Amino acid sequence: MQEDFLHYIWKFQKYNFTNAVTTAGEEIVVEDAGYHNRLSGPDFFNSRIRIGGQLWAGNVEIHLKSSDWYAHKHESDESYDNVILHVVWQHDMEIYRTNNSVIPTLELKHIVHLEILEKYELLLAREPRWINCENSFAQFDNFETLHWLERLYFERMEQKSLLISELLQKSENDWEAVLFQLLAKGFGLNVNGDSFLSISQSFNFTIFRRNQLENLKLQAILFGQAGLLEEEHEDIYYQKLKKEFKYLQYKYRLTNDGVIKPKFFRLRPDNFPVIRLAQLAKIYSDTGSIVEKVINASGVEELLGIFEVELKDYWKSHYNFGKEHLPRKKRTTKAFIDLILINIIIPFRFAYSSYLGRSVETDLELSEKIPAEKNSVISGFTALKPGIAVSAMESQALLELKKNYCDLNRCLQCEFGMKYLQQNVK
């Protein structure tokens, strides 16, 4: 039994009204269950309840047991003095306000609709399941599903905005520096994301900005800070980069303390750190200032154009220093750019729009024009409900659903979980 279930019962009044009396035997008539508060303080604000014929206006607190009132130390918290009803699953003791007046208690254990209780217990049954409602997932209405996914999508964007806000604060509101750090993390993908982020944070972005039009210098900075220019190679291009980095290192007093060295192990050659860092350097040397272009881009195609780069010259025949192969095209693929747009650019635009108080609907529209990601989570939901993930909007929402609702058993804070409880219940 979770308190969330009792919140659901109270919010939607899923109990036998005719038997609703306080533990002292006074009749309870609920005129307004109140506003569900998910922050600190009582669980429901501004409720209107008749107790023994007397109308009361105030707050409602919900616990599994009456004694939880004292376990949570509410008896010494004045913010709970306006509680007019204590709703519990099991009443095991009287509870009092700070002025020692008794708070009326409603015990739900014997008056909750049996069907609701059975469905709740089935929903959270301890048996191996990918998600709790998987047997009913395909039955959820398509319109309601889309509505809930849109809300989950915005929740995910808001969560990603927290990292952006943190980076913005550390960079003294330099949006260019923040975008550079986010792009670095994105180009590192899952394996080297943290490494690339540490590289981007190991020097002041103004250094990158001053040398932005010189690709060799940008590569030297990134490779050098990554610790990839510390070996001895006869490779001429490697020696050129190393010499350039030593000069820049001395000029800007660069150090790479705290940098996480990137990994090559089990990566496809196209994802080798040197290739991804070289592509990142080329984007900046080709494009210059990126923030303005990213923010003002009117559609997906325009954004794709910013990140479409092809490595030439030395990198056309190398995946790493000193190891030559037959010439091969090394472009940022559309699939890779889609991941950058989904995980970096759209959240960045969302955060930027929110910061300026602008509408974020355009960013939602962009996400609806990018194909859904392909991973085990999306495959799992698609197996339960084919066609549920067409665009990046749906796939991002489903990732949020799985991580922050399903995996945490937050079924009663989820539209699907509440819909499940209401199915076939009178």
TrEMBL record:
Pfam families: DUF2851
InterPro entries cross-referenced by the UniProt entry: DUF2851
Domain of life: Bacteria
Protein name (Swiss-Prot/TrEMBL): DUF2851 family protein
Source organism of this protein record: Autumnicola musiva
